Amino acid sequence: MDCDVIIVGGGLAGLVAAAELGDRGKRVVILEQEGENSIGGQAFWSLGGLFMVDTPEQRRMRIRDSQELALSDWMGSAAFDRDEDRWPRTVAEAYVDFAAGEMRSWLHQMGMRWFPVVGWAERGGALATGHGNSVPRFHLTWGTGPGVVAPFERRVRAHVEAGRISLKFRHRASRLIKTNGAVTGVAGEVLAASTVGRGEKSSRESVSDFEVSAGAVIVASGGIGGDFELVRRNWPVERLGPAPKRMVAGVPHHVDGRMIGIARDAGASVINADRMWHYTEGLKNWSPIWPNHGIRILPGPSSMWFDAFGARLEPPAMPGFDTLSTLKRILSTGRDHSWFVLTQKIIEKEFALSGSEQNPDLTSGEWLQVIRSRRGKGAPPPVEAFKRNGEDFIVSSSLGELVAGMNRLVGEELIDHDRLEAQIAARDRQIDNPFAKDAQVTAIRGARAYLGDRLIRTAKPHKILDPKNGPLIAVRLNILTRKTLGGIHTDLDARVLDGSGQPISGLYAIGEAAGFGGGGYHGYNALEGTFLGGCIFSGRAAGRKAAQ
Fold it and tell me: How far apart (Å, rounded) are the C-alpha atoms in residues 277 and 262?
């Protein structure tokens, strides 16, 4: 054998598995089709949020959380309903135990720290037994995505220096080698050297072939979000409606799902391919890095949300509450865009953009930068840059001009001024009293009952049509591809299962390629912070098991 274990993919899950294997003295080869500057994969670009339960950060924010409440939220959101959901459910239960147990102390020991205000993502907005987080659980890592990658990369680099781990960049896996039914290696192509920046589209020119043999192979290659054709092919039309004709890419082009198909060719079972997680608040990046580069708005609860024809979305399709319900509602119109209408006061307090590169203050890990950015005049600088330069933003002092701009942007007279004004005015009348029947206004006041939201995330309720709160802002929202919730079927130890549910000797799968664990431990809905968490959890499990 050339090594003990081959890991296909140098993203977060692959680094976690490699670090665990290296700690146990194993010889590891990491194959990564991109260049060395792409180590850390998608996690590098992330905001760095982790789903953790009953933490000191929560308790300091007066949040009472528990393993029991978190599991109830998870199962209500996942809505597991298929025979093949046995292992996804088992992995989900184990992850919640981990998130409520040793996860934080283990990561803290490695040097990770978290922003003191815990975020409240995916709030649900319906029943206690349904989808959503009952309490804030989104722990934002200091340093954002790079801060999550750093401790595992440090561990891997130390093993590289010691000669236990070998990093093979520009090595694209194309075939799993099997011997007597067991996976014993990987074959593929060495791609031409690349000088493009991280995330930019790299060449697929092949200069030679390679084969590596090992006692085990771990697939850590990511999902399908960069391949729109594959996304549309797996789209759950009956559940969500027709796939969007126009989307923006929340991931680089190399997130292509190739290894999922290659694992299937080697006998792996792939389940829940129709379960996916795409966002409804996507912006076309005015300064793109990868093709059709999209950025997600992380909204507070106050923006009014309208469909392509100017009809207000009904609860739970409110900003930050229920992603899939909102996606289904938007696509039901036959169009694939929607609109936020808001004020300058709302954008200043409530708009954040997803991604490490869109949050240089948090990525720096420097308090002074965070204070200058978040507490200064206007919205945070990256948001103001999008407002100024982004093609999806319209800013006006009058509603008439705003509506004209909205129609001009899409090239059709879809929005009627009087209808839009009537809906906004009706909502504004709900602000006159401390009580209201409008569910979104009630949700805004409920959000401000949480100290974290009141301090930095939710604007004080105000009338949108009142000029003193202006100017008015309209934002065209696009569907943004992001995560694969299904994937290669695995057990709790990340061992890949065949069509009969039996482990394939020598083959493991982790991270997004395995639906973040089990072949889809989210079920139908993600609670956020569970993508990076799933990479860490499944990578740790595979590394420890393969080391045996």
Answer: 22
Beta carbons of 211 and 539 less than 8 angstroms apart: no
pLDDT bin (cut points 50, 70, 90) of residue 371 is: confident
Q: Is residue 503 packed enough to be buried (19+ CB in 10 Å), middle (13-18) or exposed (0-12)?
A: middle
Largest CA distance in the chain: 75
Instruction: Give the amino acid at 143.
Output: G
Question: How many angstroms separate the CA atoms of 391 and 462, rounded?
Answer: 27
475 SS3 class = strand
Per-position DSSP letters for 142-197, written without gaps between them: TTHHHHHHHHHHHHHHHHHHTTSEEEEETEEEEEEEEETTEEEEEEEEEEPP--PP
The answer to pTM > 0.85 is: yes
Taking only the tens place, the pLDDT of each residue in 456-498 is: 999 999 999 999 999 999 999 999 999 999 999 999 999 999 9
Q: How many helices (H) and strands (E) are present in the chain, helices listed first?
A: 20, 20
Instruction: Return the residue matching tokens 């039996």.
Output: 502
pLDDT at 213: 98
